[in-house]
Inverse folding.
């Protein structure tokens, strides 16, 4: 047997000892021998930094590592890397800049920070000859950053489609299978400890948008204008549409989409219908999945746990090992798709991508209603693909008219919907959901 290459050592400090930080520290310490055996790397945890150590104590982490400030860490000349798992934006931004200035590599799971300030942080790391590892920032334990920056390096990426928020996917799964309302499904998600007390970032699409911004910057070499990504969430989704979509052969998912077109990359986040046949349709409960389409490889699908302490710790630790083994520094230093070094593709204006759509219009049940609606759609050159009106609803003041369209832009549809909403014969606001139903291999 060939001898194993020389053992490598890396000394790290963790800042933030919450769910992910605690799990990372526990695995680094308890599984030190396993990690050494598998990677040839000996990881030494130098300090655990936090304001409170209740959680760290509950995990049995060694008290002698507890440190209540970052200064000793930044001043430690023998420290190789700072692992930032504190959360927030301003504190970690300053911490990471200071760690880089102090000559430490950085590993972070902070998606909001990278979505908003990634290019600036990458540029500083590059100036310093250092690396930022961020595998844990997107899709938790799924190694999707390494897939884009290493495994799929031979490809021009055509599209990235993701289910990137476990909380939202769990809620939608409850709504689809049990016919639950959004409110009941959210309550259930909170009861099992999945949804936060304030679930806004998850259910309103912000967390998903951060993740697709990061992945798109690597896949397409763009510096996404984060504010220019249209984002909607699942929090005003009506179970009526979830069930109608199911009857039409669709499953509703909170999708993140980044799709390359000849003019640029379209990006959006929101609830959408996908065909039951689409591989993303069977991603259920708290799981995440990312579909990546490369010009050579075709369709690939990455699936796994996108949240939680241990799965996210798995990604953080792979960055620690990647750093020690020289894998992530080599990728960071030599590859050309980083937004701080590559002009990359153009981001298309919001709503300019051609998609199919589902509309539910609450309308009076009388002559001329469909004519009025179809006239408005026709004026915007929007072609109707199917139309459904349930006879059972007869006699109600307003009945649901469900339309699916052929492809059109969201911009054109929004203009039409504004006019339909203003008709005297229609009631509540029109419900509008994109439909993504292409076969994975026929995406472009
Ligand atoms: N709260 C996220 C989720 C995980 O539910 O998927 C962290 O981004």
């Amino acid at each position: 047997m060939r001898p194993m290459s020389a053992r490598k050592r890396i000394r790290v400090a963790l800042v933030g000892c919450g769910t992910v930080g605690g799990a990372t520290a526990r695995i680094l310490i308890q599984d030190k021998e396993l990690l050494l055996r598998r990677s040839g790397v000996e990881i030494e945890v130098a300090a655990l930094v936090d304001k409170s150590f209740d959680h760290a104590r509950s995990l049995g982490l060694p008290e002698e590592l507890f440190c209540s400030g970052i200064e000793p860490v930044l001043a430690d000349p023998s420290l190789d890397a700072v692992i930032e798992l504190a959360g927030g934006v301003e504190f970690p931004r300053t911490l990471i800049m200071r760690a880089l200035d102090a000559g430490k590599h950085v590993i972070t799971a902070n998606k909001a920070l990278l979505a908003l300030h990634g290019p600036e942080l990458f540029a500083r790391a590059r100036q310093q000859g250092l690396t930022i590892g961020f595998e844990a920032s997107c899709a938790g334990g799924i190694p999707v950053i390494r897939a884009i920056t290493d495994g799929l390096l031979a490809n021009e990426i055509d599209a990235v489609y993701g289910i990137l928020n476990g909380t939202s996917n769990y809620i939608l799964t409850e709504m689809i299978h049990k016919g639950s309302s959004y409110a009941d499904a959210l309550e259930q998600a909170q009861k099992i400890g999945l949804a936060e007390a304030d679930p806004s970032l998850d259910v309103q699409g912000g967390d998903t948008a951060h993740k697709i911004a990061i992945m798109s910057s690597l896949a397409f070499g763009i510096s996404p204008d984060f504010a220019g990504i249209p984002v909607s969430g699942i929090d005003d989704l009506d179970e009526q549409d979830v069930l109608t979509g199911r009857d039409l052969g669709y499953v509703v998912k909170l999708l993140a989409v980044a799709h390359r077109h000849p003019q640029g990359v379209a990006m959006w986040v929101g609830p959408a219908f996908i065909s039951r046949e689409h591989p993303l349709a069977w991603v259920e409960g708290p799981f995440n999945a990312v579909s990546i389409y490369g010009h050579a490889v075709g369709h690939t699908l990455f699936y796994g746990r996108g949240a939680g302490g241990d799965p996210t710790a798995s990604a953080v630790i792979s960055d620690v090992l990647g750093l020690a083994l020289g894998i992530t520094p080599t990728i960071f230093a030599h590859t050309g798709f980083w937004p701080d070094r590559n002009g990359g593709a153009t981001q298309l204006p919001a709503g300019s991508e051609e998609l199919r759509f589902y509309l539910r219009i609450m309308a009076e049940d009388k002559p001329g209603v469909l004519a009025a609606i179809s006239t408005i759609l026709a004026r915007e050159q929007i072609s109707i693909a199917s139309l459904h009106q349930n006879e059972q609803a007869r006699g109600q003041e307003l009945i649901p008219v469900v339309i699916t369209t052929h492809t059109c832009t969201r911009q054109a549809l929004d203009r039409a919907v504004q006019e339909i909403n203003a008709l005297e014969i229609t009631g509540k606001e029109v419900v509008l959901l994109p439909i993504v139903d292409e076969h994975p291999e026929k995406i472009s």
Remarks:
- The chain has three domains: 4-141+311-341, 152-304, 354-442.
- The pocket of L-homoserine is lined by residues 165-167, 202, 207, 306-307 (CB under 6 Å).
- The longest strand covers residues 250-261.
